[in-house]
Structures are given as structure tokens and as C-alpha cells.
């Protein structure tokens, strides 16, 4: 690995934040959060746009100074050791920053030179990363010709040029189609299996459930819950959810009529959610009450339901 500092001790946290604050003028984007990311895990920040996820990520990346609180990354203080920290990080920003007029191979080789790698090393590393990203056949083509999913894979490949100890991914699959998202997830699974610590921000519940060992749920700059995906779902939701959808103007009063069939009921603009341990049984009871939705769906609880329980709104509000 690059950088002068030694790797963190086994068991020591990769990232540790206490009462971390980020202000932009009078706006407090991050409001005194405590976070610990363990070596070798995939850790997630889940929340809607504006929750403070990206601001937190930039502080961890040592590209934005903290306003208050304590922060250690790889055992170092970003205010003092920013260059040494950045030498051992990989970063995947929300928006691709590739040079579209260069080839894929040139993008990787030029980036590697920023870390002081020799020409021979960057050539070898570029070939290795093209294979990892499944882009070898396009290595000498221009970036401008790539699809969105291919560009994201190239951006991740570029972030690995310096063999980072810690990889930061800010909304890595925003705007991608399902096939491209799943291919990207596969690459991230492989990285984690290879020992790379991942920190991922996302507002996609399925992404965080798939990729993360642990996560925090953020809302309005604060952490409102922490745990593994399964722990959070078990703690804040039921095993199943019954979704009931009605024609426009016919949903009024439905929540009160079906409330007794679940542990709790949530009424959203486009549907009523009944939280229960047995969705099919609840649906039978709803029909027995002569409630006739246009459509119904029984599904397992997700992190979206956790967020709704904690904040009273959905992740896409």
C-alpha cells in the first residue's frame, strides 16, 4: 500500500468519529454524529438526499475539514495527516470525473502517476484493473463511447490504482439500470472478499441491504439508527408488510378500518401499509371487512420501512 503511515492495528477502527459536525455558514449539515467503521467490513450510510451523507464522506476522505468533533481515519487526524490519508484511500464520487477524450487505459495510467507510481507499474496495474472491471476489450477505446454502467466500473477501477486500504463510494449506482447495478455489486463483493474496507452512501435500500454488514440511517444530519440490515428490520419493523392500493379518491378512512389487522398502519399518498407478521392472513381479514383495493401485495419488510418508522417519511420524499 502507498503512504508512509503503518496500517491500523488488527481490530482497530478504520474510521472513528465522535460528535462530528459539519457547518456551511449557518447550515449544520452534519449534527454531532458518532461513527466507527471496522477493518474489513462494508459500512453504509443510508438516507435521503440532504441527510448529510456526502458531507460526512468528504470529511472522511480528508477533502473537507470538520467544523467540530473528533475524527480519525486510518488512525490519523485528517487536519494534520490529510495527504498521507488520501494516499491510502480510493474514492468514487457521485458524478464520474473521467477524461472522456482519453482511452480507458490512459485514464488509469495518468491517475496512477498522481500517486508516484512508475510507468511500468501503472501499465501493469491498468491491465489488471481493466480485467477486474470487465473492460479489457475496450481498454484502448475512448471513454466517451461507454455506457453509464461501464463508466461507473471504470471509475471504481481508477479508485483502486493505489491499492487502497479503504474505498469510499458515494451513491455508486445512481442512474444505472438494474443489470448495471448488479454487475457493479458483484465487483464490490469481490473487493470486500479481497480485504478492502468499503464505506458506501446510498438512498437505495436494496443496495445497502445487499452490500453492507452494518449501516447507520441518517436524517437531517443526524444518525437515527445503527446496526446490521437484519437487526434494524427486526428492531423497527414486522416480518411482513401488506401494501394496499386504491383508486384515486377511495383511500380515505381505509387506514382506520384496517388498523386492527396489523401491529401498525402507515398511510402514504398512494397506498396503505399494514405491518404484520402474516401478510396473507391480514389480506384475508381486509377482504372480510369488505375493503377492496385495486391491488395488493404481501412483501417482507425492508430498510425503507425502517426509515418510514423512524422519520415518518420515505427515502425518496
UniProtKB/TrEMBL annotation:
Source species: Prauserella isguenensis
Record keywords, A-Z: Antibiotic resistance, ATP-binding, Nucleotide-binding, Transport
- Has UniProt tagged this entry with the keyword Isomerase? no
Topology term for the membrane: Peripheral membrane protein
From the UniProt record, which GO molecular function terms apply? ATP binding; ATP hydrolysis activity
Return the GO cellular component terms, semicolon-separated: plasma membrane
Give the InterPro entries listed for this entry: AAA+_ATPase, ABC_transporter-like_ATP-bd, ABC_transporter-like_CS, ABC_transporter_ATP-binding, P-loop_NTPase
| Chain ranges passing through the membrane | none
Q: Which residues form the ABC transporter domain?
A: 15-245
User: Can you say what this protein is called?
Assistant: Lipooligosaccharide transport system ATP-binding protein
Q: Which domain of life is it from?
A: Bacteria
SMART domains assigned to the protein according to its UniProt record, in alphabetical order: AAA
Which compartments is it annotated to reside in? Cell membrane
Q: Which Gene3D superfamilies match?
A: P-loop containing nucleotide triphosphate hydrolases
An example Gene Ontology biological process: response to antibiotic
- Give yes or no: UniProt keyword ATP-binding: yes
Q: PANTHER family per the record?
A: ABC TRANSPORTER ATP-BINDING PROTEIN, ABC TRANSPORTER ATP-BINDING PROTEIN NATA
Query: Main subcellular localization, coarse class?
Result: membrane
By sequence similarity, the record places it as follows: Belongs to the ABC transporter superfamily.
Note the coiled coil stretches, chain numbering. Answer: none
Amino acid at each position: 500500500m502507498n503512504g508512509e503511515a503503518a496500517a491500523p492495528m488488527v481490530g482497530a477502527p478504520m474510521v472513528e468519529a465522535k460528535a462530528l459536525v459539519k457547518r456551511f455558514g449557518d447550515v449544520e449539515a452534519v449534527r454531532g454524529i458518532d461513527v466507527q467503521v471496522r477493518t474489513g467490513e462494508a459500512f453504509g450510510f443510508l438516507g435521503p438526499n440532504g441527510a448529510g451523507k456526502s458531507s460526512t464522506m468528504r470529511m472522511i476522505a480528508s477533502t473537507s475539514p470538520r467544523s467540530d468533533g473528533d475524527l480519525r481515519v486510518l488512525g490519523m487526524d485528517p487536519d494534520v495527516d490529510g495527504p498521507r490519508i488520501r494516499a491510502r484511500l480510493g474514492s468514487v464520487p457521485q458524478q464520474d470525473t473521467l477524461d472522456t477524450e482519453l482511452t480507458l487505459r490512459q485514464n488509469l495510467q495518468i491517475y496512477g502517476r498522481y500517486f508516484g507510481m512508475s510507468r511500468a507499474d501503472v501499465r501493469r496495474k491498468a491491465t489488471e484493473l481493466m480485467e477486474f472491471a470487465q473492460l479489457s476489450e475496450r481498454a484502448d477505446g475512448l471513454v466517451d463511447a461507454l455506457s453509464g454502467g461501464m463508466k461507473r466500473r471504470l471509475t471504481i477501477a481508477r479508485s483502486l490504482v493505489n491499492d487502497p486500504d479503504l474505498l469510499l463510494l458515494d451513491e455508486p449506482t445512481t442512474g444505472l439500470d438494474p443489470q448495471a447495478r448488479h454487475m457493479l455489486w458483484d465487483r464490490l463483493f469481490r473487493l470486500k472478499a479481497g480485504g478492502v474496507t468499503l464505506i458506501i452512501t446510498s438512498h437505495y435500500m436494496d443496495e445497502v441491504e445487499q452490500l453492507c454488514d452494518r449501516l447507520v440511517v441518517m436524517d437531517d444530519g443526524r444518525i437515527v439508527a445503527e446496526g446490521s440490515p437484519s437487526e434494524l428490520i427486526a428492531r423497527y419493523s414486522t416480518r411482513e408488510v401488506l401494501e394496499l392500493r386504491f383508486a384515486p379518491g377511495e383511500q380515505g378512512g381505509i387506514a382506520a378500518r384496517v388498523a386492527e389487522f396489523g401491529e401498525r398502519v402507515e398511510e402514504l399518498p398512494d397506498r396503505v401499509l399494514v405491518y404484520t407478521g402474516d401478510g396473507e392472513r391480514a389480506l384475508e381479514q381486509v377482504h372480510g371487512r369488505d375493503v377492496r383495493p385495486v391491488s395488493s401485495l404481501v412483501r417482507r419488510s425492508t430498510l425503507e420501512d425502517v426509515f418510514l418508522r423512524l422519520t415518518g417519511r420515505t427515502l425518496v420524499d
